Amino acid sequence: MSAKVWLVGAGPGDPELLTLKAVRALREADVVLIDDLVNAAVLEHCPTAQIIAVGKRGGCRSTPQAFIHRLMLRYARQGKCVVRLKGGDPCIFGRGGEEAQWMRERGVEVELVNGITAGLAGATQCDIPLTLRGVARGVTLVTAHTQDDSQLNWQALAQGGTTLVIYMGVAKLGEIREQLLAGGMAADMPVAMIENASLPQQRECRSNLLAMEEDAVGFGLKSPAILVIGVVAAVAENQRIAAFGSSYRMCADTV
Fold first, then answer.
1. What value does the mean pLDDT take over residues 212-241?
2. Could you say which of 72, 103, 168, 212 is catalytic?
3. What share of the chain is helix, strand, coil (3-state, %, to 5)?
4. Catalytic residue at 193?
5. Scanning 5, 19, 169, 202, which has its CA 20 to 30 A from the CA of 178?
6. Phi/psi of residue 113, each to 5°?
7. CB–CB of 127/234 below 8 Å?
8. Which domain holds residue 209?
9. Could you report the per-residue pLDDT of 14-63, keeping only the tens digit for each?
10. CATH code, 198
């Protein structure tokens, strides 16, 4: 049998956000290599597959990437249908690109299946349109955590005029704030901090650039969480306040 690996996005957590193609790949899977952030309920679609946990979490003991590569290659060469199941989208901070390249260099066919990324799902759940005519002409997705500790061009991000969505930024809120302020972003720029995007335990905290670190501490913000920074982060909030009055809580559990 020809060797093949599916790199499948499981979405941000809500099993109902899986694509039909992702479900089909899981039903056909013999082996599923699963990330930590994948909701276990997703595995209902592959009840007979061998499940192998290969989690990678910032600040925690993680499965080495080279070991994951070798596992995928081993099972694929045995003729098994291999699914590498990742939280969110495999090609948005999910190493899908490098895994696909590594497999193809060794003669293994790879098919990528998109998943809904947490930045999109979390914002939508909080009624935040990442783009909005006349308000935000685009959206920029970045990660605050890099393997080589390289720095983003914060000035360009601060002055780009797009909604900024930051992944893996909870531990670097102070640095993000200082860099964006130094780059020229307004101190009162609206910020939404969204924890556990799309899950029943999703929580959101609304703040602004200057106060976001202090507000996050008071809120008890924890990973996994995404930051949405931009004028659109206040659009829905202003609508809610207009509807319910100034007593509406700025930090609340999302129902």
1. 89
2. 168
3. 35, 25, 40
4. no
5. 202
6. -120, 115
7. no
8. 118-253
9. 999 999 999 999 999 999 999 988 999 999 999 999 999 998 665 556 78
10. 3.30.950.10
